[in-house]
């Protein structure tokens, strides 16, 4: 057995290590500065209770983006020096964010060991490569992202750190080879186990869904399917699940080889960045020539986000979670005994609220950030939740789950078509969505993103919008001056959330303008970027009349969009005449 020792390395605080909505995300060159990653990792160890470090089992893996391999070796050496007992790594350092959550919750080592936390190496949907982004976040024993209490502590530690521990003489571990390597350290044995990235996750999915019914759907001549991993880690799960387990054609997988730079693309599953899929589904500027698939989906870099498309049809993420919730009990075995409750993030449309009301379900509105759902799930209050930011999931784990969302949709389609798979007319994605609108009404919804805006200008715009809220008559005068037929603003505030489980309060979670007819304008600054600021503007309008739910969304929302842009003086503050991305 190879022996190792450890050293205390002198270090000093480095500015700007405050975790955002989902961990610390910065340019690779920032992470590669001396001590940068090390300071953050040691600050995390120091923020945890001793029993979660010494003698513990931790998972270290991620979406495989550039710098991950180096980062994994550094974290292994630091874990060894800090007294961690064993590290679990997905083969080649690959584990999707939902798979990490599943591994923490479900995996049991040969000696009965269980993981108590994980370092997830990802910057999610941000591009990768030497000049792009890297990221790291810590997840806890429940499989979910560390709560604010811990991330605040980590940040405080980064401001005072003066040393970190590292086993410099521990040799690099071959993370491509499955198996266990044992080392001997000052406090005893230290193991690094490399395991197949998909095994625990596939097992979990099979326990949730009826794979046989999905397999029948995928093999039906009536149905065609397509999945785009955008060269993210989703590719490591797509083949084992969709092809090997469910019998899809290999040709239905696009960009499913994980790459360090995501093939030079932007691994964000939306209508702008998932270009190839969008074209294949007949929604692009230059559409593919052949037969269009009935169903298409894309994932982000770490495969927790998802976009669902039908033939020439986009499903908004806000509708997606509402539709999954409305159909879950009959279509998905995991939910057959009923839903405990449902939840959405504040800027997500109220489509889910209407379903919750119809089905008499507990309902929660939380701030943006998956960690807020975790408490509700741990307390048994929520089964299904989702966000406008292409995140959907359930209490099977404590992260959003892109492949789960695809399997949920396939389950619903399979259920609706169980009588007509061998012939007959297919109930399509579009049919399912339109029927949903006819039953529950439609929440017209769009999001405008202004990426990489000057941070100072973005702050000024937000401050201006808050100030404006102090006089509603003034707001309404402006609104009416822009479009006299837009309804009145009934109230305006900054969203504040009191967690019903632990009573913690989160303030300043987005600026809201709520209209008398149920329309909403929401403004917030993204918490996931790595440079400058991204302003997000969310626009929503409810239509109950089923004869009016079939309009083009941008057209239906045009007056409200106009009001939002002029009321916020968007162009004046940002210098931008158009958003970077519209979804
Ligand atoms: O980036 P991910 O996929 O980890 O997603 C993260 O950020 C999203 C918001 O991003 P922003 O603050 O930019 O609007 C959240 O909705 C999500 O819960 C969180 O996990
Ligand atoms: Mg992500």
TrEMBL record:
<dbReference type="InterPro" id="IPR005841">
    <property type="entry name" value="Alpha-D-phosphohexomutase_SF"/>
</dbReference>
<feature type="domain" description="Alpha-D-phosphohexomutase alpha/beta/alpha">
    <location>
        <begin position="200"/>
        <end position="309"/>
    </location>
</feature>
<dbReference type="InterPro" id="IPR016066">
    <property type="entry name" value="A-D-PHexomutase_CS"/>
</dbReference>
<dbReference type="InterPro" id="IPR016055">
    <property type="entry name" value="A-D-PHexomutase_a/b/a-I/II/III"/>
</dbReference>
<keyword id="KW-0460">Magnesium</keyword>
<keyword id="KW-0597">Phosphoprotein</keyword>
<feature type="region of interest" description="Disordered">
    <location>
        <begin position="1"/>
        <end position="21"/>
    </location>
</feature>
<keyword id="KW-0479">Metal-binding</keyword>
<feature type="domain" description="Alpha-D-phosphohexomutase alpha/beta/alpha">
    <location>
        <begin position="318"/>
        <end position="418"/>
    </location>
</feature>
<feature type="domain" description="Alpha-D-phosphohexomutase alpha/beta/alpha">
    <location>
        <begin position="17"/>
        <end position="164"/>
    </location>
</feature>
<comment type="similarity">
    <text>Belongs to the phosphohexose mutase family.</text>
</comment>
<dbReference type="Pfam" id="PF02878">
    <property type="entry name" value="PGM_PMM_I"/>
</dbReference>
<comment type="function">
    <text>Catalyzes the reversible isomerization of alpha-D-glucose 1-phosphate to alpha-D-glucose 6-phosphate. The mechanism proceeds via the intermediate compound alpha-D-glucose 1,6-bisphosphate. This enzyme participates in both the breakdown and synthesis of glucose.</text>
</comment>
<dbReference type="GO" id="GO:0004614">
    <property type="term" value="F:phosphoglucomutase activity"/>
</dbReference>
<dbReference type="Pfam" id="PF24947">
    <property type="entry name" value="PGM1_C_vert_fung"/>
</dbReference>
<dbReference type="InterPro" id="IPR045244">
    <property type="entry name" value="PGM"/>
</dbReference>
<keyword id="KW-0413">Isomerase</keyword>
<dbReference type="InterPro" id="IPR005844">
    <property type="entry name" value="A-D-PHexomutase_a/b/a-I"/>
</dbReference>
<dbReference type="Pfam" id="PF02879">
    <property type="entry name" value="PGM_PMM_II"/>
</dbReference>
<comment type="subunit">
    <text>Monomer.</text>
</comment>
<dbReference type="GO" id="GO:0005829">
    <property type="term" value="C:cytosol"/>
</dbReference>
<dbReference type="Pfam" id="PF02880">
    <property type="entry name" value="PGM_PMM_III"/>
</dbReference>
<dbReference type="InterPro" id="IPR036900">
    <property type="entry name" value="A-D-PHexomutase_C_sf"/>
</dbReference>
<keyword id="KW-0119">Carbohydrate metabolism</keyword>
<dbReference type="InterPro" id="IPR005845">
    <property type="entry name" value="A-D-PHexomutase_a/b/a-II"/>
</dbReference>
<dbReference type="GO" id="GO:0000287">
    <property type="term" value="F:magnesium ion binding"/>
</dbReference>
<protein>
    <recommendedName>
        <fullName>phosphoglucomutase (alpha-D-glucose-1,6-bisphosphate-dependent)</fullName>
        <ecNumber>5.4.2.2</ecNumber>
    </recommendedName>
</protein>
<dbReference type="InterPro" id="IPR005846">
    <property type="entry name" value="A-D-PHexomutase_a/b/a-III"/>
</dbReference>
<dbReference type="GO" id="GO:0006006">
    <property type="term" value="P:glucose metabolic process"/>
</dbReference>
<keyword id="KW-0313">Glucose metabolism</keyword>
């Amino acid at each position: 057995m190879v022996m190792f020792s450890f050293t205390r390395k002198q270090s000093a605080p480095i500015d700007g290590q405050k975790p955002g909505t989902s961990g610390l995300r910065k340019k690779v060159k920032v992470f590669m500065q001396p001590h940068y990653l090390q300071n953050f990792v040691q600050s995390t160890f120091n923020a945890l209770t001793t029993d979660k470090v010494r003698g513990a089992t931790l998972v270290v893996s991620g979406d495989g983006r550039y710098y991950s391999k180096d980062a994994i070796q550094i974290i292994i050496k630091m874990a060894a020096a800090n007294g961690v007992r064993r590290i679990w790594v997905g083969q080649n350092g690959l584990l999707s964010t939902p798979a990490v959550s599943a591994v923490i919750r479900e995996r049991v080592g040969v000696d009965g060991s269980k993981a108590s936390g994980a370092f997830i190496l990802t910057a999610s949907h941000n591009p990768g490569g030497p000049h792009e982004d890297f990221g790291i976040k810590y997840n806890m024993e429940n499989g979910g992202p560390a709560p604010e209490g811990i991330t605040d502590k980590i940040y405080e530690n980064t401001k005072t750190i003066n040393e970190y521990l590292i086993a410099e003489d521990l040799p690099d571990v071959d993370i491509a080879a499955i198996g266990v390597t044992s080392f001997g350290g000052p406090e005893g044995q230290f193991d690094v186990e490399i395991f197949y990235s998909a095994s625990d996750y596939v097992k979990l999915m099979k326990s949730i869904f009826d794979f046989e019914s999905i397999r029948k759907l995928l093999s039906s001549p009536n149905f065609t399917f397509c999945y785009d991993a955008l060269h993210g880690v989703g590719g490591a799960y797509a083949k084992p699940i969709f092809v090997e387990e469910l019998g899809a054609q290999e040709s239905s997988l696009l960009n499913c080889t994980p790459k360090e730079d995501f093939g030079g693309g932007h691994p964000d599953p939306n209508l702008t960045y998932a270009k190839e899929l969008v074209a294949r589904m007949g929604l692009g500027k230059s559409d593919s020539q052949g037969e269009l698939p009935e169903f298409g989906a894309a994932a982000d870099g770490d495969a927790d986000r998802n976009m669902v498309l039908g033939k020439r049809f986009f499903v908004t993420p806000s509708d997606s979670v509402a539709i999954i919730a409305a159909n879950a009990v009959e279509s998905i075995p995991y939910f057959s005994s009923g839903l405990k409750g449902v939840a959405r993030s504040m800027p997500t449309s109220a489509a889910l609220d209407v379903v919750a009301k119809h089905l008499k379900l507990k309902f929660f509105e939380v701030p943006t950030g998956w960690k807020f759902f975790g408490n509700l799930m741990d307390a048994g209050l929520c089964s299904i939740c989702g966000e406008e930011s292409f995140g959907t999931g359930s209490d099977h784990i404590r992260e959003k789950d892109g492949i789960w969302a695809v399997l949920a949709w396939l389950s619903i389609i399979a259920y609706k078509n169980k009588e007509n798979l061998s012939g007959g007319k297919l109930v399509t994605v579009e049919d399912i969505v339109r029927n949903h609108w006819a039953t529950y009404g439609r929440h017209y919804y769009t999001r405008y993103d202004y990426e990489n805006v000057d941070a100072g200008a973005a702050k000024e715009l937000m401050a201006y919008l808050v100030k404006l809220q102090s006089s509603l008559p003034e707001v309404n005068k402006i609104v009416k001056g822009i479009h006299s037929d837009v309804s009145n603003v009934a109230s305006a505030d900054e969203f504040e959330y009191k967690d019903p489980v632990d009573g913690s309060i989160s303030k300043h979670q987005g600026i809201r303008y709520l209209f008398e007819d149920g329309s909403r304008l929401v403004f917030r600054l993204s918490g996931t970027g790595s440079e400058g600021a991204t302003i997000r503007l969310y626009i929503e309008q409810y239509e109950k009349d089923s004869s009016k739910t079939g309009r083009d969304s941008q057209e239906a929302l045009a007056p409200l969009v106009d009001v939002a842009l002029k009321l916020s003086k968007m162009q004046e503050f940002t210098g931008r005449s158009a958003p970077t991305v519209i979804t």
